């Protein structure tokens, strides 16, 4: 009887242990507020409430995120729409699993081409021949800037683009390593306050779009094998998003913690709008823009890009 009781207890523990164990996920994002919903979900215990053990991993350049996902050093990443689409176009089997941030009036105004001291940029054609740093070639800010140049009648090939990470922008602008950087708040305010230069163009505001900036993506294989985890992830992000959009204190604290930016500086700039719902048609504009810039070689089907 004792042996049977011991066996029963053993079976019970074996059956309940997996249910009690939390699924572990590494989420990789760059040092911006776009993944604020995940940051808040970590700090406010929302992921844990949904049975997920999540850790945020900083990624220096957004274009490195797809490779990090496929190497399994992270399971979920926050690529920009452009980085994601180009990765899929290049044959990487990635799928979007939830929305992160979208463009709106506030976020568009926060985007800028910041110009070093000694240069004056009065109009788009003044960027011709200049060396411009972007936080990831073919990433969100770069593609958006190229779109703006084209609309203003400037040939993007006349501008020399190089990669510069967000944390190193101030030093590179100060040293004159580049003439301008494509950036956003709070980096614009930080460099302005340091007397490193001035805003040359608010190109995001001039374009005035409302499309996705960043969304959460995973490998299709991982997402399909972990459907239950993806469901919990989506529920947690949906719960955290309203906090990002309405509670500046909590959102700023989480953003400052992850990005290593001063809290007061982060508080001075509203985070990008968090939108957890991502639909396939939300990617159509980006596909059109990237196709016009000859960044895509195949015809992408939007229905296959977002996990059902």
Brief sketch in words of this structure:
The chain has 308 residues and is α/β, with parallel strands linked by helices. The protein is built from 15 helices and 11 strands. It has 2 domains: 22-103 and 210-304, D-Maltodextrin-Binding Protein, domain 2, CATH 3.40.190; 106-207, 3-Layer(aba) Sandwich (D-Maltodextrin-Binding Protein, domain 2).
Written description of the protein model:
- This protein folds into two domains: 22-103 and 210-304, D-Maltodextrin-Binding Protein, domain 2; 106-207, Periplasmic binding protein-like II (D-Maltodextrin-Binding Protein, domain 2, 3-Layer(aba) Sandwich).
- Helix content is 44%, strand content 19%.
- The protein has helices at 2-20, 36-43, 46-49, 65-70, 81-89, 105-110, 140-151, 169-175, 187-193, 203-207, 220-225, 227-246, 248-259, 263-267, 284-292, and strands spanning 23-29, 52-58, 76-77, 94-102, 111-116, 131-134, 160-163, 180-184, 197-201, 212-219, 273-274.
- The strands form three sheets. It has a five-stranded mixed sheet with strand order 7-6-8-5-9, with helices on both faces. A three-stranded parallel sheet has the order 2-1-3.
- Helix 2 (36-43) crosses helix 13.
- The termini are far apart.
- Residues 35-242 form the SsuA/THI5-like domain.
- Keywords: Signal.
- Residues 1-21 form the signal peptide.
- It holds the Pfam family NMT1.
